[in-house]
Design a protein that fits this description.
There is one protein chain. Strands 1, 2, 5, 6, 7, 8 and 21 form a seven-stranded mixed β-sheet that branches. The chain has eight helices and 21 strands. The protein has two domains: about 210 residues, FAD/NAD(P)-binding domain; about 200 residues, FAD/NAD(P)-binding domain. It is of the alpha/beta class. This is MSMEG_0569 family flavin-dependent oxidoreductase.
Length: about 425
C-alpha cells in the first residue's frame, strides 16, 4: 500500500475490551477521530475466557464504566457471567465505537516525519497517537515442565476452563491459588471432584466483616482512591497477587483450610516434574499463614476505622485456623495419585512485542505516569494499578481513560490548533 493510500486517524486504540471502549467514549466526547482495533470481538474475554460459574468478586455498585454505571436491582450483589457479558455488550452498544473487529495490530513504529505507522492484518494506517488498551493478561503462562508430563494427563489453562464436566473423570491438580486458582478449585470441589491444589503466596480477605462487605468498608476508608504513588509499596504493588475471595452464591470467604478438612489435598508451590514425581516447594504452612495474616490484617484495619469514626457495627473477630498440615509433602507420585488433569492457574504475561517504542523497563514493563509515557504519543490504559486499585477493573478504568484522553487532546491541539479540539 502506498503512502498516499494509507488512512490516517488522530488516535489508534489497540484493544476492544472495557479499557479500549472507555477510551473511545472519551475520544468521542471530545470529537477526536480515532479507530479501535480488536483482534476478536469487543469485550470477548468475558464470554470466551471465563468459566461457567464465574462472577464478580466486587459488588455491582463498583461497576462504573463511563456513561454506563450499574443500574440493576442488586447493587450489593455480584453479577454472574451472563450478566457481566450483557453489561459489557450494552456498554459497547451505547458507546458505538469506530471499531475494527477481527483485525490484529501486528506492528507499530515511529515515522520519521512524526506520528506512527500502524501495520494491521487488514492493511496499514498512520496515527498521531497510540493508546495501548490490550491489557496485562494476554499470554497464558504454562511452565515448561508441562511438556514432560504424560500425554495421558489432560492440561488446560484457567482461561480455557469452563466446568468440571469438560475434564476427564478422576482427580484434578489445580496449580496456583490466586483468584482464578482458588475459585476454580472451589468449583471443582463443590462438584465433588477430588482436588489437589498447589498453593502459592496469594493473600486472602473476608467477604463480609462486622456486618458489611469488606469492599464497602475499604471504600469508606479511601483505599480505592489511593494512587500507586501513595501506596506503601509504590510501583511494587503492581506485582501483588489479588486476594482470593468469591461473590458466588451471594458472596463468601474462600478458606483453603476448610477445603482441606473436607478432603481437598493441599501442597506448596509446584516446582517440577521428573522421574514420575510432581515436586512441590515445602512452603504450604507458610503460604496459608501468610494468607490468614493478610485476612486478619485487613479486618484489623477495619476495626481501627470503626473505632476512630464511631460507626456502629457488630463486635470484631479474629480468624483462627481450622486445619493445619501435619507435614509438608514435597513429592507426589503421579501414577497412582488418581490425577488425570491439570488446570494451570499461574497467570498471564502481557504482549507488547508489536509496539516499537522506548517505553519499557528492563523487565519489559511499560514505564508511565497514570498511563502517560515519556514517549510522546504513546499511552497505556487498563493495566493493573495503572493509577489505583480499580484501574484494571470496571471501577476506575473510565476515570483513567478520561485522564489519558485529556492529555491526548492537549497534545493534538498544540500540534494542530486549526482543529479547534476541546481541552
Amino acid at each position: 500500500m502506498s503512502d498516499a493510500a494509507k488512512e490516517h486517524v488522530s488516535v489508534v486504540v489497540v484493544g476492544g475490551g472495557q479499557a479500549g471502549i472507555s477510551t473511545s467514549y472519551w475520544l468521542k466526547q471530545r470529537r477526536i477521530d480515532h479507530l479501535v482495533f480488536e483482534r476478536k470481538t469487543a469485550g470477548h474475554v468475558w464470554s470466551d475466557a471465563r468459566w461457567d460459574t464465574f462472577c464478580l468478586v466486587t459488588p455491582n455498585w463498583q461497576c462504573d464504566l463511563p456513561g454506563h454505571p450499574y443500574n440493576g436491582p442488586d447493587p450489593d450483589g455480584f453479577m454472574v457471567k451472563d450478566e457481566i457479558v450483557a453489561y459489557v455488550r450494552a456498554f459497547v452498544a451505547k458507546v458505538a465505537p469506530p471499531i475494527r473487529e477481527g483485525v490484529s495490530v501486528d506492528r507499530v513504529t515511529k515515522r520519521p516525519e512524526g506520528g506512527f505507522m500502524v501495520t494491521t492484518s487488514e492493511g496499514d494506517y498512520t496515527a498521531a497517537e497510540i493508546v495501548v488498551a490490550s491489557g496485562g493478561y494476554t499470554i497464558p503462562i504454562v511452565p515448561r515442565m508441562a511438556e514432560r508430563l504424560p500425554a495421558t494427563i489432560a492440561q488446560i489453562h484457567s482461561e480455557q476452563y469452563r466446568n468440571p464436566q469438560q475434564l476427564p473423570e478422576g482427580g484434578v491438580l489445580v496449580a496456583g491459588s490466586g483468584q482464578s486458582g482458588a475459585q476454580i478449585a472451589e468449583d471443582l470441589h463443590l462438584a465433588g471432584r477430588k482436588v489437589h491444589l498447589a498453593v502459592g503466596q496469594a493473600p486472602r480477605c473476608a467477604r463480609f466483616y462486622r456486618g458489611r462487605d469488606v469492599v464497602t468498608w475499604l471504600a469508606d476508608m479511601g483505599y480505592y482512591e489511593m494512587t500507586v504513588d501513595e501506596h506503601p509499596l509504590r510501583e511494587g504493588v503492581r506485582d501483588n497477587t489479588n486476594h482470593y475471595v468469591t461473590g458466588r452464591d451471594g458472596g463468601r470467604d474462600i478458606d483453603l483450610r476448610r477445603f482441606a478438612k473436607e478432603g481437598m489435598e493441599l501442597y506448596g508451590v509446584l516446582e517440577d516434574f521428573s522421574d514420575g514425581r510432581l515436586k512441590f516447594r515445602e512452603n504450604l504452612a507458610e503460604s496459608l499463614a501468610f494468607a490468614d495474616k493478610t485476612y486478619n490484617g485487613i479486618n484489623a484495619a477495619i476495626d481501627k476505622h470503626i473505632a476512630e469514626t464511631g460507626v456502629e457495627a457488630p463486635p470484631p473477630s479474629v480468624y483462627e485456623p481450622v486445619w493445619e498440615p501435619e507435614a509438608e509433602r514435597g513429592t507426589l507420585e503421579l501414577e497412582g495419585s488418581g490425577i488425570t488433569s491439570i488446570v494451570w492457574c499461574i497467570g498471564f504475561l502481557p504482549d507488547f512485542k508489536w509496539l516499537d517504542a522506548s517505553v519499557f523497563n528492563g523487565a519489559g514493563r511499560p514505564m508511565h505516569k497514570r498511563g502517560v509515557t515519556t514517549e510522546e504519543g504513546v499511552s497505556f490504559i487498563g493495566l493493573p494499578w495503572l493509577n489505583t486499585w480499580g484501574s484494571g477493573r470496571f471501577g476506575a478504568v473510565g476515570k483513567d481513560a478520561e485522564h489519558v484522553v485529556s492529555k491526548i487532546a492537549e497534545r493534538l491541539s498544540m500540534r494542530r490548533p486549526a482543529l479547534g479540539l476541546a481541552v
